[in-house]
Write a structure and sequence with these properties.
The radius of gyration is 20 Å and the shape is globular. Helix 12 links the parallel strand 10 (about 260) and strand 11. The chain has a single domain, classed as TIM Barrel (Alpha-Beta Barrel), CATH 3.20.20.210. The chain contains 16 helices and twelve strands. The chain has helices spanning about 5-15, 30-40, 45-50, 60-65, 105, 120-130, 145-150, 155-160, 165-185, 210-230, 250-255, 270-280, 295, 300-315, 335-345, 350-360; strands spanning about 55-60, 75-80, 85-90, 90-95, 135-140, 195-200, 205, 205-210, 235-240, 260, 285, 320. About 40% of the residues lie in helices and about 10% in strands.
């Protein structure tokens, strides 16, 4: 008998036997449209039909990027943090940061949005009410540096990190305090999520975007506060960071991170199987299927082979792995490659079609 989605993820994280590797795939909005048409189901059903076992609520500033849908490019909004977004190429992208035009002293007086006044927890409440058997995540990212960058603009954020002015520390404390407050509220029994999702994009294609020493001095102690909210609630803590972050992985383990995502294997030091060998006793992993070259440019046979190799290597010790791509599945990904990915995961094309038919027959339920 198939496992529930929630049990499947929990078992994998605990390195217990599962009926298949759990899946948490992210799709570009245009890819969702393509899959919706192919499966003949509404866009909102694509995640479930395509085997995603996890649903996540954005309650941090990612709500401004991921939680607001615009119908066409050029439309936009300003979120509760004062960050202005505009849809470009299908994604919401920042067009104005609220503290970009002020100095660090003025920025330190910024008032973060009150979770109750701005109903920041509403997406989590709504998700929990209709959780079905999904594994539910509470996403409070970005937490420290990336939240600073969204408020100040990326250039100012890097200048701030190099500035010893205590005003910068007050603003960083504000970012961490706000994220910690959200995390504590989200992890309360009222919501009972299955994990706390944290994150900061501090990695680039060639490695960290700051020195490890700077990260340890100005980011790590503050990120530890956020992670502690999940650990104190008895929840696993996931951490998202794109790019290369190999030098700080031991630090992330030290502050209580349990799951690392998205594992961009073509960045230095980020080969998924090497990371599994070195850190698999302390970390679970989510990601590793390359979207830059393999999925967009490789053959279906190469995709099938590499995904099978990844699954074998990442689960050799019994589990500790969630199948996911290293970024969203882009619309230029050949459909044959998407099908090959899922076939390697144990969900061949005929099974996906069967799941779509089942969803329609059961009025939107599996």
């Amino acid at each position: 008998m198939p496992m529930t989605r929630r049990d499947r993820v929990r078992a994998a994280l605990n390195k217990q036997s599962v009926d298949r590797a759990p899946i948490f795939m992210w799709f570009h909005p245009k890819t969702v449209g393509m899959l919706s048409e192919w499966l003949d189901v509404p866009p909102g059903a694509v995640d479930g039909v395509m085997g995603n076992d996890i649903r996540q609520a954005w309650i941090g500033n990612n709500a401004g990027m991921e939680g607001v849908a615009h119908n066409q490019d050029g439309q936009g909004h300003t979120d509760a943090w004062g960050v202005a977004w505009e849809r470009r190429e299908g994604f919401n992208q920042i067009v104005q940061s609220p503290l970009s035009g002020v100095d660090s002293i003025a920025a330190a007086n910024y008032r973060f949005p009150d979770p109750q006044t701005h109903e920041l927890l509403r997406p989590l409440r709504e998700l929990v009410e209709r959780r079905e058997d999904f594994f539910v995540g509470a996403d409070v990212s970005p937490c420290v540096f990336e939240l600073l960058a969204r408020l100040r603009g990326m250039e100012n954020a890097f200048l701030d990190l190099a500035d010893p002015d205590p005003a910068v520390d007050r603003l960083l404390d504000g970012c961490a305090g706000h994220s910690t407050d959200l995390a504590k509220r989200a992890c309360a029994p009222e919501f009972s999520p299955d994990w706390l999702w944290t994150g900061d994009d501090v990695g680039g294609q060639l490695g960290l975007m700051m020195s490890p020493e700077t990260w340890r001095q100005r980011i790590k102690p503050r990120l530890k506060q956020v992670a502690a909210a999940g650990r104190e609630a008895g929840l696993p803590v996931a951490y998202h960071c794109c790019g290369g972050l190999r030098p700080i992985i031991p630090d992330l383990i030290e502050i209580g991170v349990n799951i690392l995502n998205p594992i961009q294997g073509n960045c230095p030091g980020m080969d998924p199987l090497e990371l599994k060998r070195e850190f698999g006793g302390e970390l679970a992993f989510m990601g590793g299927v390359d979207t830059q070259r393999l999925l967009t440019r490789g053959s279906a046979a190469a995709v099938r082979r590499e995904v099978s190799r990844l699954l074998d290597g990442m689960t050799r010790d019994g589990g500790g792995y969630i199948l996911a791509a290293s970024h969203t599945l882009a619309p230029e990904t050949p459909f044959a490659n998407i099908a090959a990915l899922y076939e390697a995961a144990g969900l061949p094309e005929r099974e996906l079609k069967r799941r779509a038919a089942e969803w329609k027959e059961n009025n939107g339920q599996f």
